[in-house]
Known about the structure:
Layout: E1 2-6, H1 11-22, E2 27-31, H2 38-44, E3 64-66, E4 72-74, H3 76-87, H4 98-110, H5 112-123, H6 127-137, H7 140-148, H8 150-161, H9 165-189, H10 201-214, H11 239-249, H12 252-264
Parallel strand pairs: 1-2
Antiparallel strand pairs: 1-3, 3-4
Helix pairs in contact: 1-3, 1-10, 4-10, 5-9, 5-10, 9-12, 10-12
Amino acid sequence: MHTLITIPFSHYNEKARWALERWRVPYRELRFVPVLHAPAVLLATRGGRDGRADKVSSRLSTPVLVTDTGERITDSAAILAWVDQRHGTAADTLYPTPEVAALEAELGLELGPHARRVAYGFGLERPDAFLAIVRANVGRLQAAVARVLAPWLVRGVVRGLRVDAARVEASRARVLACFDTIGARLTERGTGYLCGDRFTAADLTFACLSAPVLLPSRDEGFGATLPSLQPEASHAAAPAAAALAHTLRDTVAGRHALRMFARHRGPLPGAA
């Protein structure tokens, strides 16, 4: 049994979950609130020695996969590649060509951090809704702790991800540009997929990394609870977040991401 340490509503963490569940690899998921995840990651990565920092993450970032042999794998792309190498075949590998890994890496830089910043920028405007998302994704004890420590946790997220009005707006522009680029690529190729005529790690990655701005539900295939597009829900998305999600869902790229979730991922157990 493998152990996956996550911030459950993170789009990078969804990528690791999807990889494991695609090939029915048994694992247990340890879910944590942002900031409160740090001690678990430190423990799993032996004080951070096995962690890996890059342009968009630190040595304390999730996901972290601890395999049944004790190997520590950090970074969602590394986890996806590890699972694919051990369980994929020539017929269903997610990396049939070098082009796939190149586009996966590009999306990890051009979409992932910017979608995340936009989501937090909108989400932290409504602390009660954010805490509702926390309650829906972690246990009661951790949710209670998060409520007590909410101001400190929010400051930690804002500082760590550099969430401020100017950067959120700049990231929003980057997200829109990425959706335009992906939409043009899909239209030009006309195969229904980003690389070749089959589902690959590029499609999986785009679907996952677009989730913070598309806000797919569990019914639509996302493996955790995100802000809801139903305005009456207790964890309803902020109006600006919902407006952006509806806009992006009506683009070529947005429809592609939702189609990948529907066709290759969900709905998942626990969906309504």
